[in-house]
Every structure is written in C-alpha cells, then in structure tokens.
Amino acid sequence: MTRFLLTLWCLTALLAGSALAEEAGASHAATPITGTVEAPADGHGDAAASHGTAPAHEAAAMDGAHGQAHAEGDVGAVVKEGMQHHLTDSPHLELPLKSFHLDHLRIPLPFLDGVRQATGNDTPLINWMVKDDDGHAYLMMSKHMIFMALAFFIVLVVMLAARRTAGTAAPRGIGNVVESLIVFLRDEVVLPNTGKEGKPYLPFFLTVFFFILTMNLLGLIPFGSSATGNLSVTAGLALCAFGMMQVAGMRAHGVLGHFKGLMPHGVPIFVAPILLPIEFLGMFTKPFALCVRLFANMMAGHAVIAAFVGLIAVPLLALTNLPVVVAIGLLELFVAFLQAYIFTMLTAIFSGSFIHQH
Amino acid sequence: MDPMLHAGIAGIGAGLVALGAGLGIGRIGGSAMEGIARQPEATAKIQTAMIISAALIEGVALFGTVVCLLAALAK
C-alpha cells in the first residue's frame, strides 16, 4: 500500500513540477499580466497537484509583465511580482477552469465623484476601492471581497443547519460541532473574562470567531485565498473589536465613567499625567495589535508556501518541496484555528478589563 | 543592486526576528514543561496558558517579519 502511494506521489509531483517548468520556460512573450491565466491541463485531484496548479498561475503570470524584469536582472521585481500575485488582493478571481475579471462588477458611488476627481487615480488609500475610468467613482470588487462574502454565506448556512439539533438534549451532526465550539467559547473564553455582564455581548464574540475561522480556512483550499491576509479586512475586524471594547466599558460605567476608569483606584494623582496618556493610547494599540497579528500570521503562512513552491525550478525539485508545502499547510491549519481563538480571547479580555475596572 | 541590498539586510532582520521568537517561545515551552512535570494534573491549564503566550509572542515576531518583508520589497 505504501509503495503504491509513494509511486503515486512521485508521479504527481513530477507531473506537477514539469507543468510548472514548462509554463516558466514556455514563452517570454510579453502577455499582459492582467490577461486571463489558463491553468495547465491536468486532471490531478490530490493536494500536491492542487498546490501545483496554483503556482502554475504564478509561473505563467511571471512570464508576462516581467519578462522584462528577468532580462534586466531585477531579482526583487521578479520575486515581488511572482509572489505578490498570490498574497495580495487582486481584481481577478481564479478558478480551476476559468478566471474571472471582477473589474466589471462595480457599484457606482456618485457621492464620491468629487473626491475622486480631486484626488486622482494614484492616491494610495483609496486607489483600490474607488477607481476612476471615466471621471466617476466606483466601488471595485476584488478577490478578497468575494471570499469574505463566501465566508459570510458559509457561516450563515452552517449556523442555520446547526439550529436543528444544537441546544437540544442530544445534538447530532453539524449541530454537535457548532454547539461544542460555542459552549467552549462561552464557558472558557468569554464569560471568565467578561463576567456575567458580558453575556449580552456573546453573539459578537461568537460571530467574530466563526467569521475569522472561516476566512482563514478558505485560504487553505486550492484556489482559495484568505481574506484575513489583507490588512484592510483585519483592520475592519479590529475596528469592530475596538467598538466592542468601548461599548462594553460605556454600558457598564457610562461614557464619563468609562474614561475615568482609566485611572485605577488608589493611584496617587501625580502619576496621572504619565498614566492617562499611556492608558488612552493603549485603547488604540490593542486593536491595532489584533489587526496586525492576524494579518501577519495569515500572510506569513501563504508567503512561506508561495516561496517554497516558487523554488521549484526543475520538475525534480517538486519531490522535495511539495511535502514541505503540505507540512506547512498543516501548520497553517493549526494557525487558522489558533488565530481565530486568540483574536476572540483577546477581545474578550480587553472588554472585560473595561467592564471590570480596578 | 539597491533592491538586493534592501532584500539582503531585510533577510538578516528576519533571521534576528526568528532568533528572538525562538528564544522567547523556547523559554515558555521550557517552563511549561517544568510545570507539567511538577504537577501533571494541571496539564490542561498549563497547556492553554502556554499556547496563548506563544501566540502572543509569535504575533510580535510576525510584526517584525512583516516589517522585513516591506523593507525587502521596497524600491
């Protein structure tokens, strides 16, 4: 049995590797990098080959806009364009047989036309979302937005399916899984940190956990990408966590009491000029750390995988690199769960610290 | 030459980040194991606390890694 599997592994690895090498060496024609990327014809089904087809896109895209960079010997640009294609957001959605251009799915934003015309097309912050072709502002669709919507629907469907048996005396199936996760979060993560007053906020923590978990896991399937590997997405999540912390504190102590509570009891008044700015700044650095931690963990995992697959210059190297890629994928699976848990737990801890002031 | 210089120094930085993270998480793992050895019935609590601390320190390490990546990809 093991010999059969080993042979199968070697064959698929060699085929995947040769597909990569063929794509990379095929043409140095300057095909535009935003052209459709056709996946090489292969009928493989297992994880090794799926990892193999994804970098085939990368290899094919590599030929395009930086055939010139290759010629100029600019290693940085080669690395950047080869890898960034997989790590950052993009206006294309790539599926096994077809690549979709999301440029055409755009929503006009007439109230932002003035802003767009004043700032031009290259303003970093709004360059992506609000783009100008004909003098008007649009909200552009992107790959990560599609995957965020997908995560939303998955969580919705899973929760609706779980409602049948979860909460009853004998939960079965998906309800069992969901209920065990929810009970774990409620009894080990949220309530111990926020106390009884945190019970109304439980839906928020559960939503955050399952949403982040689903987004992280979607990055592990072939042709998927984790929306949490995007700084803007994690910034939005951190903003929600920030709002949660403020709301929790203000509902427990009132708006003024929330800020007065930044000074612990029994602390001499002359310490206040030092302590208050630190505590106030801490209110902002905590969500910022949440944002960057989640983003960096997710992006780093994908960057390592992209780097290892990118090292396959010759088909034979696929034999050594792809097992490493699989192993790192397993580590990423663990990190996906862990980071969702850490985000939820830290938000609960911070909210609890504002609810129970010293 | 210049982008490669950026990338090279960023590589050294990333190595230092890994060094720091390894030292920190190694200490956590070591004291966790000592605690479990002294009191096996507290294993679950110690493990949970260890995983949480390790994730936090890894967060800091990844801050540094992201900075190195940005430096490597700078023009």
Features:
heterodimer, A: 358 residues, three-stranded antiparallel β-sheet, 5 strands, B: 75 residues, mainly alpha, F1FO ATP Synthase, 2 helices
Architecture overview:
In chain A, 67% of the residues lie in helices and 4% in strands. Mean pLDDT of chain A is 78; it is low at 24-67. In chain A, α2 (47-65) packs across α4 (75-87), α7 (143-162) packs across α9 (202-218) and α9 (202-218) runs antiparallel to α12. Chain A has helices at residues 2-26, 47-65, 67-72, 75-87, 113-119, 124-127, 143-162, 174-194, 202-218, 231-260, 272-310, 318-355; strands at 92-94, 99-101, 106-108, 130-131, 138-140. By secondary structure, chain A is mainly alpha-helical. Chain B is mainly alpha-helical and 75 residues long. Chain B has one domain: Up-down Bundle (F1FO ATP Synthase). Chain B is built from 2 helices and no strands. Chain B is elongated. The interface between A and B is medium-sized, with 20 and 17 residues.
